[in-house]
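The pair is quoted verbatim as follows:
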Amino acid sequence: MRVMEVSGTDFNSLRLVERPVPEPKRGEVLVRIMAATLNYRDLLMVRGGGTSIRSQTYVPLSCSCGVITAVGPGVTRFKAGDRVAPTFFPDWVSGPRTDPDVARSLGGPIDGVAREYACFPQEAVVPVPDAIGDLEAATLPCAALTAWSALFVACATKPGDFVLLQGTGGVSIAGLQLAKAAGATVIITSSSNAKLERARALGADYAINYRDTPEWGVRAKAITGNRGVDVVLEVGGEQTLAQSEAALMPGGAIAAIGLLGGGRITSVKDHLSKLHYIRVGSRDQFIDMNRAISANGIRPVVDKVFPLDQLAAAMRALQSGLVFGKVAIQL
């Protein structure tokens, strides 16, 4: 089988190699991976952000969809032919997050999904919605589940709530689709008017160009009649926190998702605000989200598609910031 490996600290260290197709052990399923998608974390890992694994060669990427081609002894949850997606944290099955649950993750420190076949424990894969394709389903394990966990596990978003989304990357676009399906009013930001128009076409109620409107948090609050938004999906870190706080209602919630702008959020000014750190989600939360996606006919957004041997080009495309939704790999 074809496998993409990385052992350096830049995109040039990616190399396509061949390995034997693995055989499933007891309790494992063998998955023919059909599609994968990229996350910002993948760029950090390849560029040296995952310093704990710099001394080893590993397989990047953590999100995929595929078809089970064989099952090992003792497998009862699945059969050959089932379409599945592996979970980002293979050890986090259910319940509140614990340190052991999130100690291992696909795409570093353990091998990821930039390969044609992989074995997973049967407890670490979930069925994917029948109505969406492989590329769409490959967006679900990280980006969509992170948005779901932020909106409905940490923050319990309900109809009529105001949700503020930053940018038009994978998490924010998934958040837009999920929030609208729940009856929320969505405000979204971007530096691109073209992207904002695409977001409106997906259902965004209000769009703010943050370059034209540097005080976009103040503008977002004004949109709510100065009530303030209920939830902010914070992807920028410390650089965008001030405007997120300016938009928020007393008692509202900031779901800290990523660090695109650099700097970990350590606190919020308003002690009445809630700060939640989102670490993707559990397998059972993944299953819940997939039910919601099926019930609401949601079709995840894939913007650009590359073959496996062009993974470096796919990473550069994601790094460019010109993507709306997800960058995918077709296997």
